[in-house]
C-alpha cells in the first residue's frame, strides 16, 4: 500500500510516550510530537551551518567563523547555554566572532534585527 504524503502526528505527548515505551524523554525526541526539542534543533542547525560545506549558509558562517569545539557535543552546548527560552533563538553578540559561550545568548527576533552585520553604523 502506498504511503500518503500527509504527515501523521501522534496525539500523545512526549511524556506519555515515554511512560508507555519505558524510554526516557530525550532532547532528540522529547519535543513537540516526539521531534527534537527547540534547544536540540537550534544546536543541529548551528552545527550544519558551521560544519557542512554543502549547507546553503556555510559561506556566511562556517567558511568565515569558528565554533567552540566543545559544542560538537550537545551536552556541552546545553551546559553552557541552558534550555532555549520560548520565543528566542541563538544570537552572536559580536557578529565578527563565531559561536563561543562568551559570544552567544538567547535573543528574540527583534533583538537580533538590531544586531546584524548590515545594520551597524
Structural commentary:
This protein has helices spanning 14-21, 38-51, 74-81, 109-113; strands at 89-92, 104-107. The protein has 121 residues and is mostly helical. It has one domain (14-119). The protein has a two-stranded antiparallel sheet with strand order 1-2. The longest helix has 14 residues, at 38-51. The protein is globular, with a radius of gyration of 17 Å. The model is unreliable at 1-5 (pLDDT under 50).
Topology:
Layout: H1 14-21, H2 38-51, H3 74-81, E1 89-92, E2 104-107, H4 109-113
Antiparallel strand pairs: 1-2
Overall mean pLDDT score? 81
As a whole number of angstroms, the C-alpha radius of gyration is 17 Å
**Any low-confidence stretches, pLDDT <50, length ≥5?**
1-5
Distance between the termini: 60 Å
Beta-strand portion reads 5-15%
Count of discrete alpha- or pi-helical segments spanning 4 or more residues: 4
Based on Cα principal axes, name the global outline.
globular
- Strand order, largest beta sheet: 1-2
Helix content: 25-40%
Strand tally: 2
Structural class computed from helices and strand pairing: mainly alpha
Largest sheet: 2 strands, antiparallel
Order of helices and strands: HHHEEH
How many structural domains in the coordinates? 1
What's the short story on this structure?
The protein has helices at residues 14-21, 38-51, 74-81, 109-113; strands spanning 89-92, 104-107. With 121 residues, it is mainly alpha-helical.
Keywords:
121 residues, 2 strands, mainly alpha, disordered N terminus, single chain, 4 helices, two-stranded antiparallel sheet, globular
Amino acid at each position: 500500500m502506498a504511503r500518503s504524503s500527509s504527515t501523521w502526528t501522534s496525539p500523545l505527548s512526549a511524556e506519555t510516550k515515554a511512560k508507555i515505551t519505558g524510554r526516557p524523554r530525550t532532547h532528540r525526541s522529547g519535543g513537540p510530537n516526539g521531534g527534537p526539542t527547540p534547544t536540540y534543533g537550534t544546536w543541529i542547525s548551528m552545527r550544519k551551518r558551521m560544519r557542512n560545506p554543502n549547507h546553503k549558509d556555510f559561506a556566511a558562517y562556517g567558511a568565515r567563523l569558528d565554533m567552540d569545539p566543545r559544542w560538537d557535543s550537545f551536552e556541552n552546548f546545553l551546559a553552557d547555554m541552558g534550555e532555549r527560552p520560548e520565543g528566542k533563538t541563538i544570537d552572536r553578540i559580536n557578529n565578527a566572532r563565531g559561536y563561543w559561550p562568551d559570544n552567544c545568548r538567547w535573543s528574540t527576533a527583534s533583538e537580533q534585527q538590531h544586531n546584524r552585520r548590515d545594520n551597524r553604523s
